[in-house]
Amino acid sequence: MAMTTIYHNPRCGTSRTVLQALQARGIETNIVEYLKTPLSRGELRDLIHNAGLSPREAIRSKEALFDELGLGDPDVNDDQLIDAMAEHPILMNRPFVVTGKGTRLCRPATVLEEIL
């Protein structure tokens, strides 16, 4: 079975819940704390694409920085959103989980079931 990876923020309740669900099932999981080890622009683009999302669906619009940078403006394009997430990892929504069955933004946590 392919290694499972979670892009995790330990301060996020949903991220902690998803990680606990993986551990409770005994699934060996590679934990990437993306705030400590940010993803490159290309890694972000691939992760978002593989989850079947647009960059706008993958960005954390509730972060104050989202508004400060004017990212809610409809004229901000996908490349600009990815650039913002690469420069400011706190803007990446979480948790993303990658398994042998696919990639999902596990928000809500129950989305995890789709790829287990």
From TrEMBL:
InterPro entries in the record: Arsenate_reductase, Arsenate_reductase-like, Thioredoxin-like_sf
**Which reaction(s) are listed as its catalytic activity?**
[glutaredoxin]-dithiol + arsenate + glutathione + H(+) = glutathionyl-S-S-[glutaredoxin] + arsenite + H2O
What CDD domains does the record point to?
A: ArsC_ArsC
> What biological-process GO terms show up in the record?
response to arsenic-containing substance
Q: Which domain of life is it from?
A: Bacteria
Give an example GO molecular function.
arsenate reductase (glutaredoxin) activity
Name of this protein: Arsenate reductase
Q: Which gene encodes it?
A: arsC
